[in-house]
Amino acid sequence: MEKQILVDMDGVLADVYSQYINYEFKNTGTLLHMEELEGKSEFSFPSFRNYVMTPGFFRTAPVIPDSVEGLHYLNERFRVLIVSSATEFPQSLTEKQAWLNEHFPFITWQQMIFCGSKESIRGDIMIDDHPKNLNHFVGQRIMFPQPHNNASQVENCIRVSGWKEIMSLNWMGVHA
């Protein structure tokens, strides 16, 4: 049976931290650096909630380096589903779908799951940047690096440095 891999969107495919930094500079003139965001939730930053509610925020987010190649690699070998907690920001639903269609045209609409909580989503492997999503997941957990999770502990979790490392994993040895 083919393994089902769940891949988060924001922070794994879409670079929402860079998008936040760009919005903050454009709107306030303040240039933030990624190091300043280390160990803090994205929602602890001024205006972050306002920015994610702004039309276009999700639609124009930069692509995480190597994610197109990495997701294509996984998609050719496994059953890949993109799982994004999108219903908290209702305008993001169409933006996220359009963004995925543009940057990952090999991902079909049947592979996109937009939800509120990921607790009911099942698969063999989950790649996510948020411990809150990985902590409840019963399969293999892979934590993607983002400033908010640098000190987070998730039991039985593989920490990766990025998409190149994901592609170099021994996928036959990764199991649920």
From TrEMBL:
Q: Name one Pfam family in it.
A: NT5C
Protein origin, superkingdom: Bacteria
In terms of SUPFAM superfamilies, this protein maps to: HAD-like
Q: Which residues form the active site?
A: D8, D10
A GO MF annotation of the entry reads:
5'-nucleotidase activity
The GO annotation for biological process reads:
pyrimidine deoxyribonucleotide catabolic process
Cite the PANTHER family for this sequence.
5'(3')-DEOXYRIBONUCLEOTIDASE
- Give the family, as the similarity comment puts it: Belongs to the 5'(3')-deoxyribonucleotidase family.
**What is this protein identified as?**
5'(3')-deoxyribonucleotidase
Q: Say which species the protein is native to.
A: Jilunia laotingensis
